[in-house]
Amino acid sequence: MAKEKMFFSEIQDTQPYLSIMMIRVFLGWIFFKAGTGKVFGWFSSGGVESTVKLFQDFGIPFARFNTFFVGWLEYVCGALLIMGLFTRAAVIPLSVTMFVAIAKVHREVGYYYPSLILLSLFILLQFGGGRYSLDHMWKR
Question: Is 134 exposed, middle or buried (0-12, 13-18, 19+ CB in 10 A)?
């Protein structure tokens, strides 16, 4: 009985360090891939012209400007999330981008996936980069 109690208390007392790192790196990769796809056409994406056309089709104003703006934002902030550097600062513009994407694009085609990303960004906003991040190393 004592071993069971100890086992369950150890499970309850665990810290979310690894989970936060996994969320941060995974989200960083998603945004890095999306941003470089928009700007450079990497990862089998159509690049700038394809994204401009997509933005125009969804009625996003200043489609060319927003392609570069959102693409570079996702690229840079995604890389920052992967490294765990300026995590909370990187999450804020990405959250705004996801909110706009949900409102303008995904309400037509399904908003569950981007909503999950937005909620995961809020987790990082609350907890920061975690123990296994450059933020944590810099703070010490």
Answer: middle
37-67 pLDDT, tens digit per residue, is 999 999 888 899 999 999 999 889 999 999 9
Q: Which residues of 20-31 are buried (b: 16+ CB within 10 A; e: fewer)?
A: bbebbbebbebb
Q: Give Cα 24 distance to the centre of its chain.
A: 7
Per-residue model confidence (pLDDT) at position 37 = 95
**Per-residue pLDDT, 29:** 97
Nearest to 55 by CA among 93, 101, 111: 101
Q: pLDDT confidence of 36, banded at 50, 70, 90? A: very high
What one-character-per-residue DSSP string does the chain give? -HHHHHHHHHHHT---HHHHHHHHHHHHHHHHHHHHHHHH--TT--HHHHHHHHHHHTT-SSHHHHHHHHHHHHHHHHHHHHHTSSHHHHHHHHHHHHHHHIIIIIHHH--HHHHHHHHHHHHHHHHTT-SSSHHHHHH-
Rounded distance between C-alpha atoms, residue 90 and residue 3, angstroms: 43
